């Protein structure tokens, strides 16, 4: 993957002002939220506002994802029906427990993409339960759509019956396991949020721990956290080498009048080339 996954910021889907401000955010992924940050009585309004925001896709500089409600909520079909359109790059599915849930969602998604003539979207499953932790590798390797995976600590702690503290040991095994499962499946993994917005030192320390465990980036909840996260989750050597190879091979392909080509057996096109070029410019 040449896309960067250093930062994924959640933006409440029912807040028009925040959706507008998100146009100028420098996070790698801006994720319009339909789940935790949106009360039940605001879900319908949030879907409408997100649908409207996606029509202004060109005004946003980041990749645009939408976090649906959880599979167990029963709201995912309605979420997808309202938000799947041109302008969206992918969806984040929270609280994924197993691949059976993924199969049901992909079936709905594929049908909507075909009907609305949209290219296959990326999926980022979020692991937030004990069952999800156990099944993390299977979820991560579900299919080509899976571009990354997220670790969600708060619901996991609730599932374990453990109270959250900054130094909590309750989710340490899970936090270490998830990036291993993701990397084994060939995808990057994004670490959980840092909740205390006033504790920037704590955020920095938590990022360093996450990076040492193999995470590619961090979920965030406020724009002020972006710069700290980006500083600490700088592209690594393998990502840089991959981007250099993509740029070289794709440039040679276009000189021959060809479009999409392959690098190490993986298909790449203009989108991958642009992402690779952006990564190299960032490194410079």
Key traits:
8-stranded parallel barrel; two-stranded antiparallel sheet; 284 residues; 2 domains
Topology of helices and strands:
Elements: E1 7-12, H1 16-21, E2 29-33, H2 43-54, E3 63-67, H3 76-83, E4 90-93, H4 99-116, E5 122-127, H5 130-134, H6 136-140, E6 149-151, H7 153-160, H8 172-184, E7 189-191, H9 200-213, E8 217-220, H10 226-232, H11 237-255, E9 261-263, E10 266-268, H12 270-283
Parallel strand pairs: 1-2, 1-8, 2-3, 3-4, 4-5, 5-6, 6-7, 7-8
Antiparallel strand pairs: 9-10
Describe this structure in words.
- With 284 residues, this protein is α/β, with parallel strands linked by helices.
- The chain folds into two domains: 7-234, TIM Barrel; 239-283, no CATH class.
- Helices cover 45% and strands 15% of the residues.
- It has twelve helices and ten strands.
- The protein has helices at 16-21, 43-54, 76-83, 99-116, 130-134, 136-140, 153-160, 172-184, 200-213, 226-232, 237-255, 270-283; strands at residues 7-12, 29-33, 63-67, 90-93, 122-127, 149-151, 189-191, 217-220, 261-263, 266-268.
- The strands form two sheets. The chain has an eight-stranded parallel barrel, surrounded by four helices. A two-stranded antiparallel sheet has the order 9-10.
- Helix 3 packs parallel to helix 4 (99-116) and helix 11 (237-255) crosses helix 12.
- It is globular.
- The two termini are 19 Å apart.
């Amino acid at each position: 993957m040449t896309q960067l996954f250093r930062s994924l910021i959640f933006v409440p889907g029912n807040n028009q002002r925040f959706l507008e401000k998100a146009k100028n955010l420098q996070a790698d992924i801006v994720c319009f939220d339909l789940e935790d940050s949106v009360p039940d009585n605001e879900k319908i309004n949030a879907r409408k506002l997100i649908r409207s925001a996606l029509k202004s896709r060109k005004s946003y500089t980041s990749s645009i994802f939408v976090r649906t409600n959880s599979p167990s909520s029963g709201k995912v079909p309605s979420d997808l029906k309202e938000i799947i359109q041109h302008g969206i790059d992918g969806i984040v599915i929270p609280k994924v427990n197993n691949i059976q849930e993924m199969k049901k969602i992909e079936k709905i998604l594929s049908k909507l993409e075909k009907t609305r003539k949209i290219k296959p979207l990326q999926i980022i499953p979020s692991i937030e339960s004990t069952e999800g932790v156990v099944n993390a590798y299977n979820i991560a390797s579900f299919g080509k759509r899976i571009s990354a995976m997220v670790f969600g600590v708060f619901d996991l702690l609730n599932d374990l019956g453990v109270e959250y503290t900054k130094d909590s040991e309750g989710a340490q095994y899970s936090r270490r396991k998830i990036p291993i499962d993701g990397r084994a499946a060939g995808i990057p993994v994004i670490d959980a949020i840092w909740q205390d917005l006033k504790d920037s030192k704590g955020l920095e320390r938590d990022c360093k721990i996450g990076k040492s465990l193999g995470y590619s980036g961090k979920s965030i909840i406020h724009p002020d956290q972006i710069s700290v996260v980006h500083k600490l989750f700088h592209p690594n050597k393998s990502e840089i080498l991959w981007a250099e190879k993509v740029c070289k091979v794709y440039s040679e392909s276009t000189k021959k009048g060809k479009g999409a080509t392959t690098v190490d057996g993986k298909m790449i096109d203009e989108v991958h080339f642009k992402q690779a070029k952006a990564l190299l410019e960032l490194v410079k």
